[in-house]
Write a structure and sequence with these properties.
The structure is a single chain. By secondary structure, this protein is of the alpha/beta class. The protein has one domain: P-loop containing nucleotide triphosphate hydrolases (Rossmann fold). The chain has eight helices and ten strands. The relative contact order is 0.18. The protein binds adenosine-5'-triphosphate and magnesium ion. Adenosine-5'-triphosphate (ATP) binds next to strand 2 and helix 1.
Length: 249
């Protein structure tokens, strides 16, 4: 597999073409019913929608954590749906960062050990200059010797963001990264994601149910029942709420 340098700002970092996802069951669940989306390199996109609209499914398919039933997912020039499982794992490790709602910090490791974990897993050396800059930027260098249980929610999420960015991934996927935070802290965390995206020319995709948080993104995609029902450019929180109320149900 070839490695790819960071794409130009105007190029497409993530392309989803007619993604369908059906979960098999006695009554199969059509979680995604034909979603197409182009995400420009260096852009921040929020995905909003009611519970069960398919947000996490979409994010997991885009990140290569789950496979769509139909359609293609192209990230940084690689069609993820054609990669073998071990190539997909390597691809994710090298090019993709994840932030989850519950932080997923490992409880018995210090904040620093948590931040460095993706590098350890990939057998890569720590770029200490980059690590310091990142921690400084996130305002957490003084917390690095603490265990996750000794951090507030906002602090833990900043550490989780540092962990997601330590490998300098081209694309960062975040599923409800602010879900456990109050609106103000949540907006601040998204602001940090947006600033690092700008700094690093990263592509960021954030799932959120919070209109305030979503309005910090450049583009908001509204999902309903497995379909994209609205796309908003630089909306206000009120515009996001209005779209959710009129189209997102
Ligand atoms: N593993 C699974 N097996 C069967 N059905 C699933 C599975 N995962 C999700 N679903 C269904 O697919 C649909 C979309 O789920 P998804 O988790 O993507 O929604 P969501 O928009 O992220 O919701 P929430 O806001 O509650 O997190 C739902 O109807 C859900 O019940
Ligand atoms: Mg979800």
């Amino acid at each position: 597999m070839t490695t790819q340098t960071t794409a130009e700002a105007t190029s497409t970092a993530v392309r989803l073409v007619d993604i369908h996802k059906t979960y098999p069951a006695r009554e199969p669940v059509h979680a995604l019913r034909g979603v197409s989306l182009d995400l420009l390199a260096g852009s921040v996109t929020a995905i909003v929608g009611q519970s069960g609209s398919g947000k996490s499914t979409l994010l997991n398919c885009a990140a290569g954590l789950d496979t769509p039933s139909r359609g293609s997912v192209v990230v940084g020039g690689h069609d993820l749906t054609t990669l073998r499982p071990d190539d997909l794992t390597r691809f994710r490790r090298e090019h993709v960062g994840f932030v989850f709602q519950a932080y997923n910090l490992i409880g018995h490791l210090t904040a620093r050990e948590n931040v460095r974990l993706p590098l350890a897993l990939a057998g890569r050396k720590v770029d200490t200059a980059w690590e310091s800059a990142l921690l400084e930027f996130l305002g957490v260098p003084q917390l690095m010797d603490r265990l996750p249980g000794e951090l507030s929610g906002g602090q833990a999420q900043r550490v989780a963001i540092a962990r997601a960015l330590i490998t300098r991934p081209a694309v960062v996927f975040a599923d409800e990264p602010t879900g456990a935070l109050d609106s103000k802290t949540g907006a601040a965390v998204l602001q940090v994601l947006r600033d690092t995206a700008r700094e690093l020319r990263q592509t960021v995709v954030v799932v959120t149910h919070d209109a305030q948080v979503a309005s910090a993104a450049e583009r908001v995609v509204v999902l309903a029942d497995g379909l994209v029902v609205d796309r908003l450019e630089r909306p206000t929180a009120e515009q996001v709420t209005a779209s959710l109320l009129t189209k997102g149900r």
